[in-house]
């Protein structure tokens, strides 16, 4: 199964960005986009360039993985990977960049992380919400076609060798799309576009989105 038409490509890109604004309905989506809470009393300097906000993963996030029997480890960024992250931030829409400057505390990359990314709220009870995004470092070595093919194949029985699934969306690095998805979580959580959000388990639709069933 190969996606080649412009309409199919547009649909995939819309799903990647807009689905970040919708609540997860199944365990797999919750594992990839679930909001967790972590505590960090540091202040946010909005003038700090976004691509320089790579820090260690919050202890609470690591504990969540460890409690689930997983053992992700901090990934040490190469110069090439740092350049990719810088380019990805620069390609975000202006609204995303503005909101992230004020609300994104930090990002980190983990090796052996089971899901693609995780957006965490730092000190959720404070008046101004700050966020941390954790990424699976392996996506830095995947282009968007490889990453989407990998995800799509999990929906099919891989024992049937007579069928294959492949998504072709070009060679742009996957981090561009994953960052857009997770950054939209931050925009939604900060501005309350679709939900009045504290955590994924405790969110309610606002007046704009209440007419749309989950």
Summarize the structure in words.
There is one protein chain. This protein is an alpha/beta fold and about 210 residues long. It has one domain (about 5-20, about 50-200). The protein is built from seven helices and seven strands; from the N terminus they run H-H-E-H-E-H-H-E-E-E-H-H-E-E. The chain has helices at about 5-20, 25-35, 60-65, 80-90, 95-105, 145-155, 175-190, and strands spanning about 35-40, 75, 105-110, 115-120, 130-135, 195-200, 200-205. The strands form two sheets. The chain has a five-stranded mixed sheet with strand order 1-4-5-3-2, sandwiched between helices. Strands 6-7 form a two-stranded antiparallel ribbon. Helix 1 (about 5-20) crosses helix 7. The longest helix has 18 residues, at about 175-190. It is globular and about 55 Å long. The relative contact order is 0.19. Mean pLDDT is about 80; it is low at about 5-10, about 15-35 and about 200.
List the helices and strands and how they pair.
Elements: H1 6-18, H2 27-33, E1 35-38, H3 59-67, E2 73-74, H4 79-90, H5 94-103, E3 104-111, E4 117-122, E5 130-136, H6 144-153, H7 174-191, E6 195-199, E7 202-205
Parallel strand pairs: 1-4, 3-5
Antiparallel strand pairs: 2-3, 4-5, 6-7
Helix pairs in contact: 1-7, 4-7, 5-7, 6-7
Largest sheet: 5 strands, mixed
Radius of gyration using CA atoms only: 17 Å
For the biggest β-sheet, the strand order reads: 1-4-5-3-2
How many beta strands in the DSSP annotation?
7
Instruction: Assess the beta-strand content as a share of residues.
Output: 15-25%
């Amino acid at each position: 199964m190969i996606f080649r038409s412009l309409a199919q490509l547009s649909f995939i890109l819309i799903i990647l960005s807009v689905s970040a604004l919708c609540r997860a309905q199944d365990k797999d989506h919750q594992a990839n986009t679930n909001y967790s809470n972590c505590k960090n009393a540091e202040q946010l300097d909005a003038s700090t360039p976004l691509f320089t906000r790579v820090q260690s993963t919050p202890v609470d996030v690591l504990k969540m993985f460890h409690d689930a029997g997983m053992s992700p480890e901090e990934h040490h960024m190469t110069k090439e990977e740092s350049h990719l992250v810088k380019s990805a931030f620069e390609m975000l829409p202006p609204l995303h960049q503005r909101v992230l400057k004020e609300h994104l505390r930090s990002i980190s990359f983990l090796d052996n992380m089971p899901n693609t990314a995780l957006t965490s709220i730092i000190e959720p009870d404070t008046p101004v919400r700050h966020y941390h995004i954790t990424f699976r470092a392996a996506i830095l070595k995947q282009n968007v076609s490889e990453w989407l093919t990998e995800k799509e194949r999990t929906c099919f029985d891989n024992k049937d060798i007579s069928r294959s699934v492949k998504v072709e969306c070009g060679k742009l690095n996957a981090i561009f799309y994953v960052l857009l998805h997770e950054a939209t979580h931050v925009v939604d959580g900060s501005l309350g576009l679709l939900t009045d959000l504290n955590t994924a388990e405790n969110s309610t639709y606002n007046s704009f989105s209440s007419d749309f069933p989950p």
